[in-house]
Design goal:
7 helices, globular, NADH dehydrogenase
Length: about 290
């Protein structure tokens, strides 16, 4: 008989969320509590497998007694606190952040951003045609994935996934300062000349499509990428005995990319180069 360990139960905290009393396990963030209560607080830089970086500031909320708005993704819930998610101050802050991001980078492949721009009545074009933009050409220097930094919002999720939070390869980091800050490999070299091991875990956490499978990039360029026609099937990687779970994204009977479930206790969304990119033999028709 298999026994599943339940772990140590966590004490429940009681506080007020938008005027309603709620309970959340000790250690939960305000964002965790909002999601459990069915409240839709937008966020871009938060990742369910990474330590929050507080980079995008889209998830800010008001906490009674706090001088400034606080990021819901990292602020821990506390007993007795009063949190308000939809105040005019919080909504205005999100609106400005979305306007600044959308005016400087291409958010066309960022999930839900179009919805949020409409909800918060954000107008990125109000800064005028001379607003500074990150107009970088996509970097296609290998056959596995593409770096399109014209879509990068500097959320640091790829840096953390490549660094001490998961892969420990440290192939990528932030180069430059201010508006010249960029995600780059050492000496801004081609990916093939870097320490990258092509695990693709940076692609898994990228929220904007700045990092993508080359197969997806090519299909988007050709206008054939259509997620509504794709199926997802989770299976077990057969390359070794670790037991990593793979989710195969299939369109028109072809695997177009591979992800991994974030709630899987083995992988937590991470894979190696074989698991993420070694699927071509499955559909070799020769």
């Amino acid at each position: 008989m298999t026994v599943t360990p339940l772990g140590i139960p966590r004490r429940l905290l009681e506080f007020t969320l938008d005027g309603e009393p709620v309970r959340a396990p000790e250690g939960s963030t305000i964002l965790d509590a909002c999601r459990a209560a069915g409240k839709d607080v937008p966020t871009l830089c938060e990742g369910d497998t990474l330590t929050p970086k507080n980079a995008c500031r889209v998830c800010v909320v008001e906490v009674e007694g706090a001088r400034t708005l606080v990021p819901a993704c990292s602020r821990k819930a506390e007993s007795g606190m009063e949190v308000r998610t939809g105040t005019e101050r919080a909504r205005h802050s999100r609106k400005v952040v979305l306007e600044l991001l959308a005016s400087s980078v291409d958010l066309s492949t960022t999930p839900r951003v179009a919805e949020w721009l409409k909800e918060y009545e954000a107008k990125p074009d109000r800064f005028g045609p001379d607003a500074a933009r990150v107009n970088e050409e996509p970097r296609v220097d290998n056959d596995l994935y593409v770096r399109d930094y014209g879509k990068c919002i500097l959320c640091y999720k790829c840096v953390d996934a490549c660094g001490d939070q998961w892969q420990n390869t440290f192939a990528i980091s932030v180069a430059g300062r201010g508006f010249d800050a960029r995600i780059a490999v050492e000496h801004d070299a081609p990916l093939t000349d870097s320490a990258c091991v092509y695990c693709g875990n940076c692609i898994e956490v990228c929220p904007t499509g700045a990092l993508s499978f080359k197969s997806e990039f090519d299909m988007r360029e050709a206008g054939t990428w259509d997620e509504s026609r794709q199926t997802r099937t989770t299976t077990v990687c057969a390359y070794c005995g670790v037991g990593c779970n793979l989710t195969l994204h299939v369109q028109d009977n072809e695997i177009v990319k591979v992800t991994s479930p974030h709630d899987n206790p083995v992988t937590h969304g991470n894979l190696c180069i074989k698991g993420r990119f070694g699927y071509q033999h499955v559909q070799n028709r020769d």
